[in-house]
Design goal:
Length: 349
């Protein structure tokens, strides 16, 4: 009985030893397998994907893209103004580098002024002295006025209403006014015995050829004071003088025996013109009168300086001469009487 028990114990120990051996072998194999697996991975990384060279690790906020072609432009918030300054702009994350560039090339090289350039004072401009103004003369009376045809703008048209002149002595367009523009092709309503509504407009050249007035007094230029506002002063002067020359040529070519006289542009009242929104000013009238006088001086055409009897102490149109219209421009009957009296006492030979 005891022997059977010993045999059973022996067999049990044999089984335990066998199980232990199997477990130990399994663990050894598992360890070897793991080592081989990890060794394979390590060998793969060395052969296929070599490690990158060592670099200094920086935060993303310190990295600056130096290739402008790949830079991502900043976006401007909708509620901010666009920045146009050349000063580098910084935000909370990135500080843009300051890039030094050469100054842009210019079309014209910068040169020093010539060493020999003389230093001169600005020229002294003196008031021009004109010799073409008709001097005071004996009163020529109505007989002298009967020889005259008056041509001009709306300030001349008033003679139809506020004077005793015959209609045939007053040349204006049917509209009643005329600006100083393209005078070579300008037309006037040639007066006739028919009612004014029946008068026909003809070119000034045709009127001169038909009537051949003994004396032609021209009063033009007030409307030119506001024309061509986009022109330079030099261009305005050039064109104004050209139109005066065109009138002189029209008379010479179509009625050479006619004695041509220009009348100074009548003065105006600035305050009334400002109130009405007009751009006409007395200072501009003065400038254009000087242009007129210069052309007349050049061609020896006499001038009636009628403005002298129409101005007040401030150099503007007397208020009592504008009582019918109150517009700062147009004359009343008393003013026209003063104008015609001046014409009769400053006669041309």
């Amino acid at each position: 009985m005891q022997n059977k028990r010993n045999d059973r114990n022996y067999r049990d120990r044999g089984r335990s030893s066998t199980a232990l051996s199997a477990i130990l072998i399994f663990l050894i194999c598992l360890t070897i397998g793991a080592v081989l697996f990890l060794g394979g991975i390590f060998a793969y990384r060395i052969v296929v994907s070599p490690p990158a060279p060592s670099t200094e690790v920086t935060s993303s906020s310190d990295v600056i893209d130096t290739d402008p072609s790949t830079a991502t432009p900043d976006t401007k918030p909708a509620d901010t103004d666009e920045i146009t300054s050349d000063t580098p702009v910084s935000d909370a994350h990135v500080t843009a580098p300051t890039i030094q560039t050469d100054p842009p090339a210019t079309d014209k090289p910068v040169t020093d002024p010539p060493a020999t350039a003389p230093v001169t004072d600005p020229p002294v401009v003196s008031d021009p002295v004109f010799t073409v103004f008709l001097p005071e003369s004996a009163d020529g009376g109505d007989a002298y006025l009967d020889k005259i045809v008056f041509m001009g703008d709306s300030t001349t048209y008033g003679l139809h209403v506020y004077s005793d002149l015959k209609p045939s002595q007053i040349w204006t367009p049917l509209s009643g006014t005329m600006d100083l523009f393209d005078m070579t092709n300008k037309s006037i309503a040639l007066p006739s015995d028919e009612h004014r509504s029946e008068w026909k407009e003809v070119k000034i050249s045709e009127a001169l050829t038909t009537v051949k007035p003994e004396i032609l007094v021209v009063t033009l230029g007030v409307n030119y004071s506001t024309d061509f506002s986009n022109w330079t002063d030099a261009k305005k002067e050039e064109y104004f003088k050209l139109q005066i020359e065109n009138i002189i040529k029209l008379v010479k070519d179509n009625s050479p025996q006619t004695k041509l006289i220009f009348q100074s542009i009548y003065p105006v009242i600035d305050s009334a013109l400002i109130s009405s929104g007009s751009g006409i000013r007395q200072s501009r009238i003065e400038t254009r009168n000087n242009w007129l006088f210069e052309v007349c001086e050049k061609y020896n055409v006499p001038v009636l300086k009628t403005e002298d009897v129409l101005k007040d102490a401030n150099g503007q149109l007397k208020s009592e001469y504008n009582t019918y219209h109150l517009d700062g421009i147009h004359l009343n009957p008393v003013a026209f009487d003063a104008v015609l009296k001046y014409v009769k006492t400053h006669t041309v030979k």
